[in-house]
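Lecture notes, continued. The same structure-token format from the folding unit now serves as the input rather than the output. Read the line below as a description of shape only.
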């Protein structure tokens, strides 16, 4: 991403920038992006997907717990290892655990975490567990590149009493941003900042207005 595009994003009025991803996440890459974002006042969050790429300097650290993975390690074991290793560095007010539900079979994260595609009842049950069993601060509906189901997002939001609802996936236009923000507390715009930066920036204005 060019410095010019990054400046437009950081100065767009967005509430925060999340640094993360599935492929080729390296410490050098994270440090480079962090140093470029730090020229601006926007809060900066590291969503941890690689232990090797954890570094101080971010305002917050989000730790996904993939609820619909077939492997327990993506729900608990990797997080356990990270806490063992970094417990002395943890400032709890800066660390938030996310109940993560990946809802796109074609997403790299879906394959990487060996997830299964949940039906509506599964999603509602995961939301309930996040909110009332694990008491996690965030329930994240991750469609990753695919525009999701607004009706399901609305149902999930109605069930949550304590957890904040994050929605991510396929938001490219102002109209889509507006639609999903009617239900989700937070929307994440990702891929479109690389494919159509002008259109992606309009999503911020659409939500703020």
């Amino acid at each position: 991403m060019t410095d010019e595009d990054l400046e437009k994003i950081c100065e767009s009025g967005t509430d925060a920038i999340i640094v993360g991803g599935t492929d080729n996440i390296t410490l050098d890459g994270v440090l480079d992006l962090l140093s470029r974002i730090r020229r601006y006042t926007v809060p900066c969050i590291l969503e941890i997907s690689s232990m090797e790429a954890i570094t101080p300097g971010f305002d917050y650290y989000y730790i996904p717990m993939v609820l619909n993975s077939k492997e327990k390690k993506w729900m608990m074991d990797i997080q356990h290892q990270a806490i063992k290793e970094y417990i002395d560095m943890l400032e709890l007010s800066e660390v938030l655990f996310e109940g993560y539900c990946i809802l796109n079979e074609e997403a790299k994260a879906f394959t990487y975490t060996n997830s299964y595609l949940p039906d509506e009842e599964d999603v509602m049950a995961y939301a309930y567990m996040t909110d009332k069993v694990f008491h996690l601060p965030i329930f994240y509906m991750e469609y990753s590149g695919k525009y999701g189901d607004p009706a399901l997002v609305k149902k999930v939001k109605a069930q949550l009493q304590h957890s904040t609802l994050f929605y991510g996936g396929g938001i490219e236009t102002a109209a889509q941003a507006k639609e999903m923000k009617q239900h989700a507390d937070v929307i994440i715009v990702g891929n479109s900042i690389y494919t159509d930066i002008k259109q992606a920036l309009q999503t911020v204005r659409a939500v703020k207005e």
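Point for the exam: The chain is about 40% helix and 15% strand.
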